[in-house]
Amino acid sequence: xxRSGIRGSSVGYQPGFRYASSRLFYKVKMKLExxxxxxxxxxxxxxxxxxxxxxxxxxxxxxxGFGHVAGLPILIAAFLAIVIAxxxxxxKHFIYFWLAIIVVRTAATNIGDIGHDLHINALVVxxxxxxxxxxxxxxxxxxxxxxNADSYTLAAHPLYWWTMLVAGALGTVIGDYFSxxxxxxxxxxxxxxxxxxxxxLFFGRNGKLFQLAYYWATVVCIRxxxxxxxxxxxxxxxxxxxxTAIFGIIFVLALIILRERPLNSxxxx
Length: 269
What we know:
This protein is 65% helix and 0% strand. It is mainly α.
């Protein structure tokens, strides 16, 4: 079956493919009916979630006073609560997936900022996080049938969420580096990185967005642009609190307006 990228095809993983059910990482996953399709609506929502997550990370660390480390246990607890609740819900929707995305993005924002707290050079932090991401993707490729590895891009298992965390942290550091390390400022950095995101989405529209490495490279770029954009709106247009509230509302509206039918075994075939 031909898979078309950005126009909204079936996604995640295909039921016809061999699933590594004997492996814990692939047994503990979100239900298929709770996963969104990878299409235009998905990427737009992810972009909004990235901006919101940049704000919620700073809100938790700054306004609520938890700092970049003390708030992480709270986020872990919130993530586990979402995952557990998802297991007991038989309805077809993807609220749990997007709530988990926000929580993971919030945590990634604060993890990415820890390097700044420790006065570690941003390029060093980027290199470390990039290496961790590459190793993670290699493990991902090796842990399942390599011929079908790209079919598990959106399987929402623990390895997926770990990769989202690492990609988000890397994107946070890249976004800050473009804004402050290269002295572009938040607005110019957001625009430059936004163009890169647009390029990834455009050139990946015919199927590359389903490829494991391409998908995660796109996510990293979106996280980078979202970091710069989130900082711009939080500090140059609104306050951090108001920006968090505004993008929270926009995020909810996006879920309603861009709502797509959740995946099921029939729609994924």
